[in-house]
Amino acid sequence: MLICDEYLTPASLDEAFAAMAQHRGRSRIVAGCTDTLPWAREGRAGDVNIPVLIDVSRIPELNERRVDERRVRLGAATSIQSFLDDPALARALPAMPRCAVWFADDQIRVQATIGGNIVNASPAADATPCLIAHEAEVELAKNEGGKIARRRMKLADFVQGPSRTGLADGELLTAVECDALPGYGGSFEKVGHRRSLVISLVCLAVLVKLDAAGHTIEDLRLSIAGIGPRPLRLAQVEQFLRGQALSAGLLEQAADMPAPLVASRTRQEYRREVVRGFMLRGLINAAKRAGADPAALTPELEAAYG
Amino acid sequence: MVDFRLDAVINGRKVSRPAKPSQRLLDFIRDDLNLTGNKEGCGAGECGTCSVFVDGVLMKSCLLPVAKAQGARIDTVESLAKTGELSVLQKAFHKAGASQCGYCIPGMVMAATAALRINPFADREEIKERLGGNICRCTGYQKIFDAVELARDVQNGRLPASALLEEDYTDGDFIGKNVRRLDAPSKVSGKLKYAGDMTMPGMLHVQVLRSPHAHARIVSIDTSAAEAMEGVEGVITCADVPGEDGFGVFVNDQPIMARGKVRYVGEAIAAVAAEDLVTARRALAAIKVEYEALPAVFDAFEAMQPGAPVLHDYAPDNLTKHIPIRVGDVEKGFAESDLVIEETYSTQAIEHAYLEPEAGLAYVDHDGVVTVLSPSQNITHHRHMLARIIAKPISKVRFIMSPVGGGFGGKEDMIYQGMLALLAMKTDRPVRLVFTREESIVSTAKRHPSRTTLRMGLTRDGRIKALQMKMVCDGGAYGLSTEGVMRKAAILGAGPYAIPNVQVDTYGIYTNNTPSGAFRSFGALQTQFATESHLDMAAERLGLDPFEIRRINAMQDGGFTHTKQKLGKVSLTKGLDALEKACGWEAGPPEQRGATRKDLGRADTRPPVALGARFEAPGKQEAAE
Prior knowledge:
By secondary structure, chain A is of the alpha+beta class. Helix content of chain A is about 30%, strand content about 25%.
């Protein structure tokens, strides 16, 4: 049971920092609360007494988002559901709707925030690999002598391990910025014990850009989570595939490459098999959505993994 | 704690009243506004029976601190239709028989309402996905999806409104007719009150202190600090039991609260009744228990070895129950066999996971009758046990069975009703205990984990000549239904097959694991899993079709069971015939299957798991791609 004496909903960043300073050491920042409330239960943290909860989800700046042809800026309180509801976001982040549809369930993703998913730093966080594939950076703000100071950090560096991030004392994650990749085909592959409300055993984000003929891989982005302490960008595979002509043989070769990266605490053999299947399925799905020439992918491969 | 004023519009009415910062929206609507239609099933966002609309968007109210509802418009299941009326979806749930225990149904109806508002043309696959955040344990979901499709088609005019009307029985003829549940309207509307929905004036809230140890001697329990706390009205331990302590289904080996020692993690040690839940939780933390750890045993086979830790003085060999069955001479049968197969099978503990966690309300009425209301699956037996435990005549003990939000055997045990009775007697006020999901899982009975060694002898033509079975079950720390489960496992273990020589032994063993108890099929699953798996292997070795080997051995009309019960009519072969036809069986021995099977990739076979029906959905496209 989560027990608090005060629940504050600051209306601005200044108010939030004032509350954080006033209740330093006896408060916790919350946004969607979709992880905090289940955390404060038997079997996890048990009964938790936090004198002050500071809910930052209503701060206007944290709810702003900007999208253009090159960049996307997401306020930290952006809900996961936004990637399904906002056509501009879906266009700029083509794998994100596919990720969102696997994220928790229809109800929780209305409430869950992108900032919370990142700060939570789960090795199996669903949104993080997608954002890493977009070269995301986080914006971290703190109050320095009455002024708000901001710094940036690559998301891939910010998430350091299970529940460990680069967030410093007194800092708040205010926004995520990343590449807009309109025209890319996106896919998100995930497996767990069931379809809804499940923690990923493995999840993979794939973004593919093809030439006009749908033959050559001009660019691609791959990021994976659930196979080790933190999400990884698969840079080597990206390098191997970039500039190559799409073919079943090429994808099969690429699919074998990430297996040695599997370093999870449990079920490594299973995950290696899943990773191979996901690489094929993810690349095929993303390539198809990027306008791949159907002749480039053998029907057998597509039937097995598409 | 700083209360704040919550201003919101709830079910169309303005609400402006104090709320506590620790409350969740679910607590506020249920406890403060007495809108109990939406339930709590898990408290962790997993089950969805608490789903409500917040500004028109469906959310899980157990994950919402109430402050998040400030200024919002909240609609609960009570908002869907006026009292005495049902919405189209609720009528469709009634028509399709989509409610069983009913505990998940308010949330299901809400999720279905949300799904059809977002996409009035959602196909079945999309409906499944949109209801993915809601769990039902009884129905298997198909009738729920049927109901949503029915409502969709009526709303869209594809079906007339009369499709929702009942076709009730004609001339008292019920058999083979589709008769609608009488209690469904109360379930689909959220009107039905389960134990956790009930309150009484002056009611106290109960919480239970549970053992962190699997096996330990209790050196001392000090409840003085808890009793001294403001708002705490009563604390009980085993010392408060006035009569003969002990309950169970077959053997009364479990005390209401641990007496002298604890035997499993989660066993009740003390209970507190306080003015509110938070005070009760804090009082639990103030109870000091000193333990002396004892060696524990977690495996039934280890518990059977000489020198293993002993749980109960009366059972020095840790044996709860042994059931033997002997028919003919198995050694003779094996000698006559052409093929003898031996294998060992194991099954695991399984939680019932009914959507309604245990809950109960107790009070002492004006005539001094100790009254316990709970979703007990066995109130008469509980009543007799409780009378003995609290040393009162049976006329002064009353049990009321509240609607059971799923039981499956898991609510047969009187594991908390005794504590409620004692606290009602001690405080002279109504008391209520509502389990959390975690508490329900840690403290209540599970399906017996088993290990079965099976030896079967058959002749070349597939006839079973002998069956020898030994099953050892982990009964956990207390007896509960173990004796009956062993009995049923033994009686039904050799299956519905005529076998001349049978030797079955089932053993229920005490260990320091969570007690095992009743669970659908009551032991038959464990032994029959072994027997049926074995028959498939035998079919393979003998080159027989799996259906055929079962027909060859099926008990016949007028035959006898292994325990000499005369059978009038046996419908096994009729069932096998129907099953074979329905499943599209490819005849032949099992090892032929696979390479020759032709059903893979067919339109009606299941593709790999995927999500995203909404991206290809007819009607409204949600995401721009």
